[in-house]
Amino acid sequence: MEKLLNKEIQNYINANLDADLHSLLLKKSPFDGVSMQEIVQQIKGRKVAEKKFPFLKKDNIIFPPNLNLEQASSEVTAAYKSEFLKGKNFLDLTCGFGIDAYFLSKNFDEIDLVEQNPDLIKIVEHNWNIHGRKANFHNLDLEDFLSQNKKHFDVIYLDPARRDQNLKKKFLLEDLSPNILEIQDQLLEIGDKVIIKLSPLIDISYLVSEVKHLSKIEIIAWRNDVKELVLTLEKNFISGNPLISCINLESQDSIFEFYFEDEKSIKADFGDIENYLYIPNNSVLKSGGFNSISKLFNLKKLHPNTHLYTSSQLLNNFAGRILKVKNIDPKKLIKNEKFNIISKNHPLTPDEIKKKYKIKDGGQDYLVFTQSQKAKLVLRSLD
Ligand SMILES: C[S@@+](CC[C@H](N)C(=O)[O-])C[C@H]1O[C@@H](n2cnc3c(N)ncnc32)[C@H](O)[C@@H]1O
């Protein structure tokens, strides 16, 4: 790592930020003891950082291999998670590239970071020094750290790694390193609050049944793309009924929250299409709060199997998209007219719809093919 900090090498990296990396890799490194692969990795890191971690746009920052860049949280989600966190002692047991830790620990007096990968923790220590941030850096397996530890922490953070990178679909907490089911009791003995980041693919009911003292699940989306589930475990919280909080960063959507158990007893009102159509954002869809959102916003649901809602009056602070609509006869559409086509609970796919009615994708207007409990609907957005 030290060699990469050589001024000439840093200048070379800066001068080649827009270079074609494949051709660069074929060249011989102009520097003794530093391979072209290492140099290209630094260029890749800087490019990833431009969007994912802009705070790392500083001289002499060192970047790890791609896997660690991919596993790291983005600055925007890390900064969101840091809100309201404050205290004396902060511990991150799965430091990785240290992006989460950097933001989450900002308002703590003493910070302990644990990472099993020796190269990675060295890089984190170096980068934190550049930012003038102090911490105790532990290159240890977290089980060893926990067995030696005598401190108490206000907040313990974990962002477990997947054991198998190919597990794309459903996966279980046992598939993660560490397995939080094995250590959750131990963590709550030494920490007041435990915060755990998980993939959005994990099922929420499964988490509620397996994780103890679970007080909150945050579903964090960025521009309507669900990025993370964030669990909060609190020692004094009785299990079973966490607050579910749906957040869509970089949007005007309000935060939508409900208690897990309440969803089961709330009944949604159903109704036929009125003036406005409401399409919940993806964090709400992930949450399963389909009855709660109808009750909270006083909206009628169109159909038990479709999570679309309606009202006669406009309601502005909905956690999702709102369209002013009218029900139309699709046969009267003009040939080649452009629409954003949505098909939900309707027999035709968007492609089949385009073919059948000779319309095209795009433009500003929406066409929603769906059904209420009474009838098939084709809704065209107005304005
Ligand atoms: C998903 S990454 C964390 C990324 C981090 N939150 C960030 O924003 O950069 C998980 C990290 O946990 C580390 N890890 C997994 N199991 C561990 C264990 N038993 N002990 C210590 N570190 C572990 C991995 O080496 C990996 O770097």
TrEMBL record:
Residues 276-318 form the PG-1098 ferredoxin-like domain. Pfam families: Cons_hypoth95, PG_1098_Fer, Thump_like. This is Uncharacterized protein. SUPFAM superfamilies: S-adenosyl-L-methionine-dependent methyltransferases (SSF53335). Signal peptide: none annotated. Residues 331-375 form the THUMP-like domain.
